[in-house]
Design a protein that fits this description.
Largest sheet: none
Number of helices: 5
Order of helices and strands: HHHHH
């Protein structure tokens, strides 16, 4: 497999991570009782959306067709529906815990991708996006701490 093939596969996987992040942050923002936290999550959702756009452009530059949706999109929609059901009636603390777990998974997937033989341009983009995912994780962690301190 060529570096381009490896890169296309890896970036396609990260596009799904970005979509999951976008939707997870948006759903969480809808359920949070705090407007401040909801606004932060909307910003994170938008960054996830922009990251997916950037990755799609790279995939297309490498000669792969634009994604068509298909079964991956269907699975993602089922996952989002399950997430929304799970978040209904949750406390802000529970929502933040769920988002921290989701961000931990996203960080792990980005790190796994960086272990692959990516093209240099893709590697740079993924490293930059990993920093954004880490920032989101740090934000969620800070919000969790703030929420727990306020409750104590």
């Amino acid at each position: 497999m060529t570096a381009e093939d490896v890169t296309i596969n890896a970036l396609t996987n990260l596009i799904e991570v970005c979509k999951e992040g976008e939707h997870g942050f948006r759903l969480s923002a809808e359920q949070l009782g705090s407007t401040d936290m909801a606004d932060i999550f909307i910003g994170c959702a938008e960054q996830c959306r922009l990251s997916a756009v950037e990755l799609r452009a790279l995939v297309q530059q490498l000669g792969a067709p634009a994604e068509t949706g298909g079964t991956a999109a269907s699975a993602l929609m089922r996952g989002w529906a399950a997430l929304k059901g799970a978040l209904l009636g949750c406390t802000d603390d529970q929502i933040l815990d769920a988002m921290q777990h989701a961000e931990d998974r996203a960080l792990a997937r980005y790190r796994e991708v960086l272990e692959r033989n990516l093209t240099p341009i893709a590697r740079a983009v993924v490293q930059n996006q990993l920093a954004e995912v880490q920032h989101h994780s740090d934000l969620v962690q800070a919000l969790r701490l703030r929420t727990r301190m306020a409750a104590a």
